[in-house]
Amino acid sequence: MADEAYLNPAVTVDAIALREGVAGTEALLIRRGEQPWKGRLAFPGGFVDRGEDPEHAVLRELTEETGVTGFEPALFAVHGDPHRDPRQHIVTIFYKVSVNSDAVPLAGDDAMHAEWVSIEGLQANQMAGDHIRIIERLRE
Fold this sequence. Notes:
This protein is α+β, with helices and mostly antiparallel strands. The protein is built from two helices and eight strands; from the N terminus they run E-E-E-E-E-H-E-E-E-H. The radius of gyration is 15 Å and the shape is globular.
């Protein structure tokens, strides 16, 4: 193993912020402005910076992509299938994050839109990557 670099997976975080709306449970989602999955709905999130705690990263990414301040991140799921993202092997840590339910999202960073969306009617073809798996768990 002379001078071989380690090919470690990248780590991302996604924020699951929920509230009760008129039509039931709503999730704060973004519409992706970049590939992969441009135009599809996703939980706000992004890459963990070197030296950054994932719990801090998820709150940072939530604010950068939606303008909404989150607190009290709690581990919800970890997705790590090596083929789940076409860019590279990405392990995503999903956190449930508390937010003010009156928060008005404003898209930023690489999100082209941010909004509260009822989780009831969401289909896999509307969602980025494997995020529909999280929606399905939230519906249980």
